[in-house]
Amino acid sequence: MRFTKMHGLGNDYVYLDCVNGPTPADPVALSIRISDRHFGVGSDGLILIGKSTVADARMRMFNADGSESEMCGNGLRCVAKFVHDHGIAKKKKLAIETGRGVLAVDLDIVNGVAARVRVDMGEPILQATDIPTKLPGNPPVDVAFTVGDPSTTFRGTCVSMGNPHVVIYPGDEYFTTTPRDLVAEHGPWVEHAAVFPRRVNAHFVKVHSKSEVTMRTWERGSGITLACGTGACAVCVAGVLTGRTDRKLLAHLPGGDLELEWSATDNHVFMTGPATEVFSGDYV
């Protein structure tokens, strides 16, 4: 089985071309095996690139634990790069079908290959029942919830970008030493908290200014990841909702930077960042 390893800011997935090749019979089991960083290829999950009747290609995304997710922003940028660079649709503007619907993508082409990708992520979903979350508010903004053993109380703002996110501003002290410790300690508890019926992606954010933040992510089904594109979009929206940041935002993630904008004109969120192909191989 031919595969390609790609990443968006270190958020890495194994990609299968199901347009020109077969679709795996059991993508759940395959994602678990192939994502293993010791006995497989190693990745945050598996992404299938298939045919679409409504777009240039269709994207299906499976986490490292085998669970299927609705969307992945970093993965979507890589899908768009693959579709262009591998000749599935050699266009600077693409439409990609996702679990969130059909999303528009603009490619920055350098020497014949896609270098940077700008994605129209659509409107954020702010109705609590649609995110989904049991926390009060539409959406919940800086609402307290308690997790862990011993218990810890955070204040979270909830946003869906087609998949559920909670954005937490824990205080600068968590970012002065080893920020990954905070994510590793509390991330699993937040992901599985009862107030998030379909689990949640958890983001811990430090605000530098109205236009700049640093964020760390515990990704639903994958754990600590170097970047989360939909999460960065949720952080942009949460910053506006809480009055902490402006509609245009530069987000620093462990794997690199993303540029975000929550447009006041059409209410859509736009994400711009790189996509990188690492290598291809055969998985037996």
> What is the SS-derived class?
alpha+beta
Per CATH, the superfamily of the largest domain is Diaminopimelate Epimerase, Chain A, domain 1
Shape estimate: globular
Average pLDDT reading:
95
Order of H and E elements: EEHEEEHEEEEEEHEEEHEEEE
CATH architectural grouping of the largest domain: Roll
Radius of gyration: 18 Å
Count all strands and give the number: 18
Distance between the termini: 6 Å
Low-confidence region ranges:
none
Helix share bin = 10-25%
For the record, the CATH class of the largest domain is Alpha Beta
Under CATH, the topology of the largest domain can be stated as Diaminopimelate Epimerase, Chain A, domain 1
Number of domains: 2
Beta-strand percentage range: 35-45%
For the report, how would you describe the main beta sheet?
Answer: 18 strands, mixed
Helix tally equals 4
Summarize the entry for a quick read.
By secondary structure, this protein is of the alpha+beta class.
